[in-house]
Amino acid sequence: MSELDWNDIRVFLALFRARSVRKASEKLGMSHSTVSRHLTELENSLDAVLFTRSRDGLLPTDVAKQIVTKAEKVEGEVIGLERAVVGSDSAMSGQVRITCPPLLSQLMLMPMLAEFAASYPHVELVVNSSYSFEDLMRGESDVALRSQFNPDDNLVGNRLPDFTNFAYASPDYLREHWFEGNQTSATWLGRVKSGPSHSWINEAPFPEAASLHKFSDMMDQAQAAVAGLGMVVLPCYYADRLPGLVRIPGTGPLSKRSMWVLTHPDLRSSVRIKTFLRFLFAEISKQEKQITGE
Fold first, then answer.
1. Chain centroid offset of residue 96 CA
2. How many CA atoms lie within 13 A of 146 on its CB side?
3. Fewer beta carbons under 10 A from the terminal one: N or C of the chain?
4. Count of helices and strands (H, E) across the chain
5. Domain housing 59
6. Which of 154, 132, 149, 150 is CA-nearest to residue 141?
7. Is the confidence at residue 2, as pLDDT, over 60?
8. In a domain? residue 1
9. CA 265, 268, 272, 274 torsion-angle sign
10. Do 150 and 281 fall within a single domain?
11. Which residues contact 278 (CB under 8 A, 6 or more apart)?
C-alpha cells in the first residue's frame, strides 16, 4: 500500500456523503476530472474498490463503509490543526469564510460586508450561501448565520433578533377574494417540500384554505404572490420592502425563527474572526425592527 494523501481522503468523504461525483465536485470546488482522479488514486493506494455506480448514484462498498469512520477521524485532526493555526493569529488579514441562507446574504448582509471590507481592507471575505448545518463542524466556514432553536453544543456565538414571518398578498388579490373570520376564498402559496397538510397552514390564519401552487425558491414564491397567484408566508424583513405585497389585514405575526451568528470555539482567539463576529452581530441587531416587524 502506497502512502495516503489527505486530498484523496477528503475526496472520499465528499463522495461518501454526496453519493455523486458532480455534487462532491461542487462541494470541494474541484473539477469532475480532479475528483475522479483522486478517487482512482485512493483506490489504487488501498487496492480496493470504494464505490459502485447505480441509477441512484454512487453506492459505497463494504470497504468504504469500514474505513469511513477512520477517514472522519483523520478529517477531524486536520480540521483541528487548521483551526489552531487560524485561532492563534493576531493580524487583521487573511480570510473570513461566511455561510448564511441565500435570502439573508442577498437582502441584508451585502452593505454590512462592504462596510467591514472598507474598514479592514486586508481581510478577504468568502461568502457561501447555504442552508447546511455542517459547514462549521467540518471546517468549511469560520462564521455561520443559522436559524435554529438550540445551536450545536460545540459551537459558540450570539443570538440575533427573532426573524418573524407574516402573511402577505398583492392588493389586487385581496380585493378579488373574500375574507370572513378565519374563512376565505383565497389560497396559499406553498413550498415544494410542503404539502397541504404541512403544519404551517394549520397554524396560519385561514387554516382551511387550500395550498394551490408550490415553489422551491422563496423569491419565486414572493414574486408569484406579487403576480396574484395567492397568499404567502414570508419573513417581514424581505416582504415589507417588496413592492406589490401588503400584509393581509387582520393577521399578525405567524411564526418566529431563532437566528444565531456562530463560530467554532477554536476560532474565538483569532482577531479577525472575533472582530468580524462582533461587527456582524452589532450591525444585524440594528435591524431589529425590520427583522421582527415592529
1. 17
2. 22
3. N
4. 12, 15
5. 6-86
6. 132
7. no
8. no
9. positive
10. yes
11. none
Global confidence as pTM: 0.62
Amino acid identity, position 80: G
- What b/e readout covers 73-96, taking b as 16+ CB neighbours within 10 angstroms? eebeeebeeebeebbeeeeeeeeb
Task: Check if the beta carbon of residue 190 is closer than 8 Å to that of residue 211.
Answer: yes
Q: Are residues 219 and 268 in the same domain?
A: no
C-alpha to C-alpha distance for 122 and 280, rounded to whole angstroms: 17
Which are the contacts of 153, defined by CB distance < 8 A and separation ≥ 6? none
Whether residues 170 and 251 fall in one domain: yes
Among residues 65, 38, 36, 31, which one has the least CA distance to residue 50?
Answer: 65
Do 143 and 137 form a contact (C-beta atoms < 8 A)?
A: no
Tens-place pLDDT, residues 234-279: 999 999 999 999 999 988 888 888 888 888 777 767 888 888 888 8
If asked whether residues 217 and 278 sit together in one domain, one would say: no
Distance CA 11, CA 27 (A): 10
- State which amino acid sits at residue 265: P
**To which residue does cell 390564519 refer?**
205
Total count of residues recorded for the chain: 294
**254 vs 259: CA distance, rounded Å:** 16
The x, y and z cell numbers of residue 44, run together, are 489504487
